[in-house]
Design brief:
- The complex is a heterodimer of chains A (274) and B (239).
- Chain A is an alpha+beta fold.
- Chain A has a single domain, classed as Immunoglobulin-like.
- Chain A contains six helices and 16 strands.
- Chain A is globular and about 50 Å long.
- In chain B, 51% of the residues lie in helices and 0% in strands.
- The chains are: A alpha+beta (274), B mainly alpha (239).
- At the A-B interface, α3, α4 and β2 of A face α10 of B.
């Protein structure tokens, strides 16, 4: 009996230590940073991006070009931000800061994928539709069934008829016609973490990432660290980042282009193995 | 001269000249008393336009060939110069925006674009893009453009609402013209031969490489660069 108590206790300690080791946060000082420039995209849903008369670059997209392949240059985005801020593409009014960098770090171990986002959240937003949350940070991961997700990132979930788009149904969320995205979001009010998905609709719960998040704020600088289940070593997962700054809601976020995260595999960004 | 109506003798009064006629211009050899009308007497022919035309067709005997050539040469220069000057006047920005239809609509949009102001100080005005440079195509364009006068008279785009309603149709006409000419007016300044795509921004560089490979023409992609794009644009059928 005593033996079994001892062995149970030892097993418990080992399990605890093991799980602690598995959950051990990476040494972020040893994980490379890559600046992803998020930007206010205005009313440029996937329908806009793939329509030649709206976006001449759609000809390149049809040939397999990625958004970042044309628009990320010399460590920044080469968009015509004047055009993006113009009434035609942003009828409600553009934020004062059209783009800002988010330092992206990723590491993984056998069980988990760790992602840290560090950014200064700009003020001067044109929309303050989320009264509760000053800031939200979201990451979407596309599954292999999402068409051209490695080119378009999360643009496949962004549609002209989704809420906050001009004239759209305010109850219709983002969606993807084919495949699915995992969604994890940190919201500033109460440090709330959502583990959701985007399929034919967006759900803020019931996801499969097991997402957890920690956040720290220093002035206007935020550091948000996500921990989620490892999607699988050897995978290259398309993803995109969105920051809702200054109480923005819906489409009034700053978003990144689409990138691939290599987990023990090739990618635009390679996660560091722990 | 046998089958013609009796010509008028332009200033020929000597009967000898009437008789032999050789070496003289426009002398009638029927022995009748010659007329002494000048060119300006055409109306006296009594047949109106046909009489005037007959006079025009008749050789002159009053003026020497050299005089006619000199007058014709310099007259031609003055006429041609005047004609071209007049035509060039219709190619200026001031002329184009002298009507409120252009001034209040497309001009205001164009002023915000790189073809109006840019770091190098080179400006492309309306005619640089919308009127061919070479004479033949310019004349054809000018003649076709006379239809725009009818539009002005009838007020087809004389309000912002009317202009918006016709914007797509007007733009489609111009895009079709540019496409048919392989964007000739764009190529007066821009050409793939002179273009170093490696020195362009990434997005332009990649798209121009595709354009060169697929033998695209400028207007295939560069629509709405000097004016607002119309609503309801059709997608290209070849895409």
């Amino acid at each position: 009996m005593s033996k079994s108590i001892v062995s149970t206790a030892v097993a418990g300690v080992l399990l605890a230590l093991g799980s602690q080791a598995a959950m051990a946060a990476p040494d972020w000082s040893k994980v490379p940073k890559r600046d992803l420039h998020v930007f206010h995209a205005g009313v440029t849903p996937i329908e806009w991006a793939t329509k030649k008369s709206d976006h001449s670059g759609s000809a390149g997209m049809r040939k397999g070009e990625t958004c970042a392949g044309c628009h990320e240059e010399k460590g920044a985005l080469n968009f015509n931000f004047k055009r993006l801020a113009d009434k035609e593409l942003e009828p409600k009014g553009a934020p004062k800061t059209m783009t800002f960098p988010v330092a992206f770090q990723a590491a993984y171990d056998k069980d988990n994928l760790y992602i840290r986002l560090s950014f200064k959240s700009p003020s001067g937003g044109a929309d303050k539709g989320d009264k509760d949350n000053e800031v939200k940070a979201t990451i979407l991961f596309a599954d292999p069934k999402v068409p051209q997700a490695d080119q378009y990132g999360c643009w496949q979930t962004c549609h002209a008829d989704a809420r906050t788009m001009p004239g759209a149904d305010e109850k219709k969320t983002k969606y993807t016609a084919t495949g699915a995205y995992e969604l994890m979001q940190w919201a500033s009010k109460g440090n709330k973490v959502s583990d959701g998905s985007v399929t034919t609709e967006r759900k803020m719960s019931g996801g499969g990432t097991g997402a957890k998040a920690e956040a720290a704020k220093s002035g206007d600088a935020y550091t948000v660290t996500f921990t989620r289940k490892n999607p699988g070593e050897g995978k290259s997962v398309p993803f995109g980042v969105a920051i809702h700054a200054d109480n923005a809601h819906g489409r009034f976020h700053h978003v990144s282009l689409g990138y691939k995260l290599g987990i023990g595999a090739d990618g635009d960004i390679k996660a560091t193995k722990q | 001269m046998g089958g013609r109506k009796p010509p008028y003798h332009l200033g020929i009064t000597k009967s000898s000249a009437v008789r032999d006629g050789a070496g003289l211009i426009g002398v009638k050899g029927d022995g009748s008393k010659p007329h002494t009308h000048g060119i300006g007497d055409s109306v006296m022919a009594g047949n109106g336009i046909s009489g005037f035309w007959a006079v025009l067709r008749r050789p002159s005997a009053k003026y020497s060939l050299l005089s006619l050539l000199v007058v014709g040469f310099f007259g031609g220069i003055f006429f041609w110069g005047g004609f071209n000057t007049g035509m060039e006047a219709t190619n200026t920005l001031d002329f184009c925006i002298s009507c409120h239809e252009m001034h209040d609509n497309v001009y205001q949009e164009y002023k915000k674009t790189i073809h109006y102001t840019n770091r190098t100080g080179v400006r492309a005005v309306c005619s640089d893009c919308h009127v061919p440079k070479d004479w033949t195509h310019k004349m054809i364009r000018k003649i076709k453009a006379s239809g725009e006068v009818w539009g002005k008279i009838t007020g087809s785009i004389d309000t912002p609402e009317k202009f918006e309603a016709k914007r797509l149709e007007l733009a489609e006409h111009e895009w079709a013209r540019m496409k048919a000419s392989d964007s000739r007016e764009c190529r007066n300044c821009h050409s793939f031969d002179a273009m170093d795509v490696e020195r362009q921004k990434l997005r332009g560089s990649k798209m121009h490489k595709i354009g060169i490979a697929e033998k695209k023409t400028c207007i295939d992609c560069h629509k709405g660069i000097a004016h607002k794009k119309p609503k309801g644009m059709k997608e290209d059928e070849d895409e």
